[in-house]
Design brief:
With 170 residues, the protein is of the alpha/beta class. 31% of the residues lie in helices and 21% in strands. It contains 4 helices and 8 strands, in the order ββαβαβββββαα.
Length: 170
Amino acid sequence: STVYAADVFDVDEDGKVLANAANLAAALDWLRGEKVQAVNISLAGPDNRVLAKSVDALVAAELPIVASAGNDGPQAKPAYPAAYAGVIAVTAVDARKRLYTRANRGEHIGFAAPGVRVWTPVADDAEYRTGTSFATPFVTAIVASLRHNELVSFADLEKALAERAEDLGE
């Protein structure tokens, strides 16, 4: 498969790296035009009309979006885009298949993947990272593979994922 990367981040005047809905919407539009097999969104934030409209366009085009559930804890409000209808929301588990303690919870979350102490490349090195953002690419890779190799329809995608998943319960 070909991997596409869309940079949605800006640096503010304090040097803090931030993503915004306008950049994410532009990236989603570009990816839809590239006819990718799946979109991975490893970030989470509040509901936003611009983002919701972009997500709706991808869902209407039957382009799967896999998004991280967020890391604000069990009592947090749903995070977006993971909580939008039609998005495959992913949480993180550790090596013993226990839920990441800081992961958001909710009925919208469909799948879990390794996301605690994931060996991750950074700059000229690598380090362990934790969070739902690190779990999401595991599910995105499976989605892309299913869409590319087995031509699974958009409508059957979650069923195909569930058939390959281990049910960890509530």
